[in-house]
Amino acid sequence: MPTEHRTGLLASPLVRSLCAAAVAFAFYALWAAWANRMHDVSMIRLASLTQGSYSAAVTFVMTSLVEFLYRGDSGVGFRVARSVAITIILLVTSSVAVHLIVGTAEVLATVLPSWLFGSAYALSYALGLARAERRRTGSQRSTP
């Protein structure tokens, strides 16, 4: 069934975003627990809740940020690069800041997966916007 005719909960962008945020919370909370496994239980719990909550929020917000930054009249390549670069810079700086504030012991090990997956997500999403735009406008130019 074509996307525009889907019904049900997953047809809602809000529900899809909330589901993605829930998956991100679970995955990254478990990752933070493993990354901090050599420390006491209170540190593991703190790192897990911090990284899980942060990742859920970032997952929910990232799509909107990439879409907002992609808009404009400049070339597609520039818009893709701008939306990805700014999103990644905000992801990296905010994740480090959050963990430094709460005192996570293994900051780099805790946040590295979210940087990698978040960067890949931002890039693939921005390229998807470019492909959708190309289909809409009938342009045959290749996406960067």
Can you give a write-up of this model?
- The chain is an all-alpha fold.
- It has 4 helices and no strands.
- The chain has helices at residues 13-35, 41-70, 76-102, 107-137.
- Helix 3 packs antiparallel against helix 4 (107-137).
- It is elongated.
- It starts with 12 loop residues before the first helix and ends in a 7-residue tail after the last helix.
- The model is unreliable at 1-6 (pLDDT under 50).
Shape: elongated
Calculate the mean pLDDT score and round it: 84
Oligomer: single chain
Given as residue ranges, the uncertain stretches (5+ residues, pLDDT < 50) are 1-6
Largest sheet data: none
Which structural class do the helices and strands define? mainly alpha
Order of helices and strands: HHHH
Strand-residue proportion: under 5%
Radius of gyration: 18 Å
Span of the ends, CA to CA: 30 Å
Summary keywords:
mainly alpha; disordered N terminus; 144 residues; elongated
Give the structure's gist in a few sentences:
The chain is an all-alpha fold and 144 residues long. Helices cover 77% and strands 0% of the residues.
